[in-house]
Every structure is written in structure tokens, then in C-alpha cells.
Write a structure and sequence with these properties.
alpha+beta, Alpha-Beta Plaits, 2 domains, four-stranded antiparallel β-sheet, PaaX-like_central
Length: 184
């Protein structure tokens, strides 16, 4: 039986699956992308219709191309679709919190020019969402590994070269930071 999806969630799941290579498809020349549909365990015509609608929405929004090649229906993610996947990844990004702290502080600093104010604000907001603690306006700290996430955020907003990542054993205000993060 197909699980229930909120509005837009089925299209999102299809797009993420395409990006991951989970079902890059060459379908038989039957309507309805018949090779993908079984992956969602549709119970009947209504479920198959919903999957078809999700594909049509993705195609209308230019996130996928659907075309016939050698008599087979092919679904391919577009450049815009790949960008949308990155947005989904960004939205769902979280830091892994280890059971035992390794004793290192991760300090993230940035000096993003005024001409890139929107990117600067977005980077700052995402860094806060990840749980880093602001110690100055553009300086954040975390006891957890976050280099990959910071690299991703910087690359996504096109400002990675304006971000510095530091790993340090000592930092001022350690008592307050340890209390904030619940580490010792």
C-alpha cells in the first residue's frame, strides 16, 4: 500500500530518488512511467494517478525531462531539478551529535561582502539553524564536527571562499559554551 504524502511531498521524494540514481528510468512504452510506479506500492488507479500527477508537476516546473528514446520512456533530472535537490538537502541538514565530545571547538567565521548581503544573511541563518552558537556577529562556535556542512552551505550560496573554519582546543568563555552545549 502506498504511504500518505503531504501536498508536494510525493514529487519531492521522486526528485530526490532521481538525483540519488535510485530510479533513473527507461520505462516500457506504456503510459504512466510504469517502472517507477511500483516503487511507491500503489494500491490502485488513484495511487497511480497521484504518481503520474507528481511527475507532470515535476516536468511542468522543469525539474525533470520526460522523453521517448528507442521506444522507451526516459526520465531525467534537469539542472534546475538538481538545484532543487540541493535545497531539499540544505533544508534537512543537521549536525551529528556524538555521544562523547572530542574536546575540540569548531569555530566558523565569515566576512561576506555587502554586495552579497542576501547570501550572508542566508549563511548566518543556516549556521544558527545547525545549532552553532554566535560569539560575535559573524563568528559561531560548535563542539561538534561541522566542516562538511559548512562547506556545503558556503558552496550552495556561492560564498565558500569568504568562510573560515577553525578547529581549536581552547576558546574564551569555555564555561558558558560547555553549559550551552551540555558538554564537559
Amino acid at each position: 500500500m502506498m504511504k500518505k504524502y503531504e501536498r508536494g511531498e510525493l514529487a519531492k521524494e521522486i526528485l530526490l530518488g532521481l538525483a540519488a540514481g535510485g530510479f533513473i528510468v527507461a520505462c516500457l512504452a506504456m503510459p504512466g512511467l510504469t517502472k517507477i510506479i511500483p516503487l511507491f506500492k500503489p494500491k490502485g488507479a488513484k495511487d497511480r494517478y497521484r504518481i503520474n500527477q507528481a511527475f507532470q508537476k515535476l516536468q511542468k516546473n522543469k525539474l525533470v525531462n520526460i522523453y521517448i528514446k528507442n521506444g522507451n520512456e526516459v526520465v531525467e533530472i534537469t539542472k534546475a531539478g538538481k538545484k532543487k535537490v540541493l535545497e531539499y538537502n540544505l533544508d534537512e541538514m543537521k549536525l551529528k551529535v556524538p555521544q562523547k565530545w572530542d574536546g575540540w571547538w569548531r569555530i566558523v567565521m565569515f566576512d561576506i561582502p555587502q554586495s552579497k548581503k542576501r547570501a550572508r544573511d542566508a549563511v548566518s541563518r543556516k549556521i544558527k539553524e545547525l545549532g552553532l552558537y554566535p560569539i560575535q556577529k559573524s563568528v559561531f562556535v560548535s563542539p561538534y564536527l561541522c566542516k562538511n556542512e559548512i562547506d556545503f552551505v558556503g558552496e550552495f550560496f556561492g560564498v565558500r571562499d569568504h568562510i573560515i573554519y577553525i578547529k581549536a582546543k581552547e576558546i574564551e568563555g569555555v564555561r558558558e559554551l560547555k553549559k550551552h552545549f551540555g558538554v564537559s
